Amino acid sequence: MEEKCVSPNVVVYASIVDGYAKKGLLNEAMNVMKKMVQRNISPNVFVYGTLIDGYFKAGQQGIALDLFKEMKSVGLEENNFVIDSFVNNFKRSGRMEEANELLKAIMSRGLVPDRVNYTSMMDGFFKVGKELDAFDMAQELTEKSSGFDIVAYNVLINGLFKRGKYESESFYTGMRQLGLVPNSATFNTMINACCKEGNLENALKLLNEMKSYGLIPDVITRNILVQRLCAAGEIEKTMDVLNDMLVYGFHPTPTTHKAVLDASSKSRRADVILHIHNRLVGMGLELNLSTYNTLISTLCKLGMVKRATLGFKDMMGKGISPDIITYNALIQGYCLSSHLKNALSVHSQMLTEGVSPNVETYNILLRGLSAASLIKDAAGLVNQMKERGLIPNADTYDILLSGHGKIRNMKECTKFYCEMITKGFVLKTSTYNVLISCFSKGKKMSEAKELMREMQVRGLSPNSSTYDILICGWYRLSKQPGLSKSLKRSYQAEAKRLFEEMNEKGFIPCENTLAHISFALAKPGKKVDAQRILNKLYKKKVK
């Protein structure tokens, strides 16, 4: 325009500012406004409003507020769009009380909120869990503004559905009564609600009805249905949905691929997983590093390493280089299938290929050593890990402690326990159980008892296994030859106390614990105790 000696006016400049702001080019938009001022063209409220909204969305509140002050200083009053920018800014940070105060203030000055303002307020109140305030906004929208449009109605049903309020059919009926025509967002909200209600058949009917309105299902529609159908184990219905989406140009993505393979892995059959994978490829799934990693990881988690290595070779044949995720998956697969040598071989291969292992790589290998009762050979791996600048994490120590506990190496268990405490790691109940078991089997029941106290002090609750270990430990201790009667009674009393406590907490004892208890109670004078405890156990099992 300027090249043709035509000077742009305020409307043209406002359009240019809006275009830049929508693309996130706020500096360019600001420069346009400065150029307006240089040319003695005063920016109007729409120019200021666009910039204020843009800077709020970019998280630059200081600049947005400065622009608002500047706008007021030149005599411009805020309009509904500017108000909505402020409301949305408050909404993003959950400050809906401030948004409400703002709305009251502008109403006291004579500015009437429009449908967009009420819709934003309603949405904000739903998001912070204030349903009554959201209903108030809906009521005001009906009474003081032009009533619901489909956007406002979508906000209402979305807010209520997220809180499990009402059934999808009732809102669909309400929408028709208001004379509103549903859009894609309406159907997506109702499809999601049906899925959450477990009504997948209705969700699929809504998909067909969506098409009858001439609406094209979008990525959101696909993702909702794929996730929910996969969660319900409806693999074939998922594949039907994906097949239908091909008509609209939507092909399976790596995210879709992962969801469907995770669901199909529940069959624990390699042929099913590979069949689904191949069907997705036939639908246009791109074979890249991400999809190969998903396939290899899915198979390896089930210990199906032979099938996974075929995928690995196919990937390499296509010129796709494996990364740390690929190698970790293969190492885990070999460890799970008890092929530790192969796992270590893959580890060596990744080093040769220049792929640096991470902490998880070493943790997987250490778990493999522990499972094979070879944790005593772990020192070399731990040293290698440290030499590479990798710092053992809580899982590393947990694996080492549990591994040594498995072979009853109390010295190493205690060492790693002390290191965990020193480094500030939070021990799990299962870790404490390993330690308690170590001391229990070593007939050091006082130390085992102290560990139980310590775990409770640290905010961890003993579980059923904790009680089983301690009860059996005290009974084994009471059976030692040469014990005085008083000691024997005190040990059995401690076991009985723990058993009572275990029952009060609702835990079901294991067979070993019951065997010890039965032995102790099947003696003269213990019949009443035995009957009372067995009655409690019977009631729990019936429940």
Extended strand count: 0
- The average pLDDT is 89
Global outline: extended
Order of helices and strands: HHHHHHHHHHHHHHHHHHHHHHHHHHHHHH
Helix content: over 70%
Secondary structural class: mainly alpha
Cα separation of the termini = 82 Å
User: Stretches where pLDDT falls below 50 for ≥5 residues?
Assistant: none
Proportion of strand residues: under 5%
Q: Output the radius of gyration.
A: 33 Å
Helix segment count?
30
Q: Tell me about the biggest sheet?
A: none
Describe the structure.
With 543 residues, the chain is mostly helical. Helix content is 72%, strand content 0%. It is built from 30 helices and no strands. It has helices at 10-22, 26-38, 45-57, 61-73, 80-92, 96-108, 115-127, 131-144, 150-162, 168-177, 184-196, 200-212, 219-231, 235-245, 254-264, 270-282, 289-301, 305-317, 324-336, 340-352, 359-371, 379-387, 394-406, 410-422, 429-441, 445-457, 464-478, 485-504, 511-521, 527-542. Helix 5 (80-92) packs parallel to helix 7 (115-127) and helix 26 (445-457) packs antiparallel against helix 27 (464-478). The longest helix has 20 residues, at 485-504. The protein is extended, with a radius of gyration of 33 Å. The termini are far apart. The mean pLDDT is 89.
Give the gist of this structure.
With 543 residues, this protein is mainly alpha-helical. The protein has helices spanning 10-22, 26-38, 45-57, 61-73, 80-92, 96-108, 115-127, 131-144, 150-162, 168-177, 184-196, 200-212, 219-231, 235-245, 254-264, 270-282, 289-301, 305-317, 324-336, 340-352, 359-371, 379-387, 394-406, 410-422, 429-441, 445-457, 464-478, 485-504, 511-521, 527-542. α13 packs antiparallel against α14 (235-245).
